[in-house]
Amino acid sequence: MERRKTDNEIKQQVLGELTWDSRIAWSEMGVEVRDGVVALTGVVSSYANKSAAQQAAHRIRGVLDVANDIQVRPDPLIARTDTDIARGIRQVLEWDALVPDERIKSTVSDGWATLEGDVDCWREREDAEQAVLRLVGVIGVTNMLTIKPSQIAAEALRNEIECALERRADREAERLRIECHDGTVDLFGRVHSWQEKRAVIGAISHAPGVSAVKDHIRIDPYF
Description:
Order of helices and strands: HEEHEEHEEHEEHHEEHE
Number of helices: 7
Low-confidence stretches: none
CATH architecture of the largest domain: 2-Layer Sandwich
Number of domains: 3
CATH topology of the largest domain: Histidine-containing Protein, Chain: A
CATH class of the largest domain: Alpha Beta
Helix content: 25-40%
Number of strands: 11
């Protein structure tokens, strides 16, 4: 069995990852670790930077969870009004071939964007949110996009998901239990890392008929 990392070892490796990732102004961040849970603090100029820091922390083996308390304060020299941001959202969605932009509308208030409408699958919902989060001036997103009701029987959907996991993430699939009901997928089990968890959820998100994913997967680097 692999030796369990100390909190200080995890902290140093998270700091190293933040330093290595050119998207992150790591000098303005604080990192604390307790019982494998990483707490990130500080100030960044965009939500994309905040998200990048969280992803960097999750890449470290031994990290169980991340509490992302980083604040987003857009640079006043490149400030965007809510109208500017709303226009940017419309443009980025129209130019994205992977989302049905004509069925999505947005509202922006003090830099916070709300997405409403409907999409065909979970992946489109996630793609729309990620596209908006990368825009200058956006400090957060409330994703209220709904997925069209599934016409696929629960057993058939579960079988499709299991096949997808075997193709993409067979190591993880053997340790997971999948339950489906009315398009909602519940995931149970253990994986070694956040990266493994993301691989599983990423594979499932492409399945037609998935309207929601409830993640009950535990991260345990040492089992």
